[in-house]
Amino acid sequence: MSMHRYTYLGPAGTFAEAALRTLPEAATRELKPSVSVPAALDAVRSGDAAAALVPIENSVDGGVTATLDELATGTPLMIYREVLLPITFALLVRPGTALTDVKTVTGHPVAQPQVLHWLSVNLPDAEWVPVTSPGDGARLVQEGRFDGAFAAESAAPLYGLAPLVSDIHDASNATTRFVLVGRHARPAAATGADKTSAVFWLADDHPGALLQRLYEWVVRGVNLMRIESRPTGEGLGQYCFSVDVEGHITDRRLSEALMGLHRICPKVRFLGSYPRADSVVPTVRPGTANAEFSEASDWLSRCLDGRSGG
Question: Which of 168, 198, 214 is the last residue of a domain?
Answer without folding.
Answer: 168
